[in-house]
Write a structure and sequence with these properties.
This protein is mainly alpha-helical. It has a single domain (about 15-260), classed as Glycerol uptake facilitator protein. About 80% of the residues lie in helices and about 0% in strands.
Length: about 270
């Protein structure tokens, strides 16, 4: 029996072509990022920490004036928009594109480890510096950072904390997927706003964003230290990775199974 779409000459070919094109873009970009030198990894990661810091400043300023996490989340989109336009690197944005390149065998696991480790450390270093400057330039925001930071460092490692961190990893990876699927800059900007709203507006546990808030609280002399931060940071980071990989990336790779096999075959022929 011929379907109505077939009678009209419509097929799934255009959709499949778009999926294939998006996959090719992801693999190409992932391979490019994974073949960066240590200098490139650290500088782009450091810049990413500075740019996320700009979003945190906007978040704290809006929250201080309104007391609304939702409005503060929208303000935080400044950070994600800056990341996108400046082509910098954020640790939690590395759970889809580089991983897909590794699965397609365009790069190795060691290169993925270098990207993740270098970007994570550089993000934190850049963010630490920004928050030191913010607290000394805008001391009123230091008090807001102290108030906000207690949400994270006082949280017990229970089911709720686990789910908040898993969702943060899944949502930011979804944001990355949306940006790579968008054909226009407007679509990519919309994805950045959506991602920021979900992460910051819902106060999910995000290893980089929330670490910067904690750093601001420490710089402001709040009742917490780096040990309190580490006790929260280690499990949040692992769960962010798990949320991004298993909730979003795995499904994307499953859908692209045939494309991955084709890519691997091309790599073998090239060898």
């Amino acid at each position: 029996m011929v379907s109505a779409r077939e009678e009209l000459g419509e097929t799934d070919a255009p959709v499949e072509d778009e999926v294939a094109q998006a996959f090719d873009r992801i693999v190409d970009q992932g391979a490019q990022r994974l073949h960066r030198s240590w200098r490139e990894v650290l500088t782009t990661g450091f810049a990413g920490g500075l740019e996320v810091g700009a979003g945190v400043v906007a978040l704290l300023a809006v929250y201080a004036e309104t007391g609304s996490h939702l409005l503060a989340g929208l303000a935080f989109s400044v950070g994600f928009i800056a990341l996108m336009l400046a082509r910098s690197e954020l640790f939690t944005e590395g759970f889809l594109v580089p991983v897909t390149a590794v699965v397609a065998r365009r790069a190795g696991v060691a290169q993925l480890g270098k990207l993740w480790a270098g970007t994570l450390v550089a993000n934190l270093a850049g963010g630490w510096i920004v928050m030191w400057l913010v607290v000394h330039a805008l001391p009123d925001l230091g008090a807001t950072a102290v108030e906000s930071s207690l949400t994270f460092v006082d949280a017990p490692l229970d089911l709720r904390s686990v789910c908040l961190a898993l969702l943060a990893g899944a949502f930011i990876t979804l944001m990355t997927r949306m940006q790579h699927g968008a054909d226009s800059e407007a679509g990519k900007l919309a994805a950045a706003v959506v991602g920021a709203f979900l992460l910051a507006g819902l106060v999910l546990f995000h290893s980089i964003l929330d670490s910067l808030i904690v750093f601001g609280a420490i710089h402001a002399g709040g009742p917490l230290g780096y040990g309190d931060w580490l006790a929260w940071f280690w499990y949040t980071t692992l769960l962010n990775v798990a949320g991004g990989l298993f909730v979003v990336t795995f499904l994307r790779l499953l859908r692209s199974k045939e494309l991955i096999q084709q890519e691997r075959a091309e790599v073998r022929r090239g060898d």
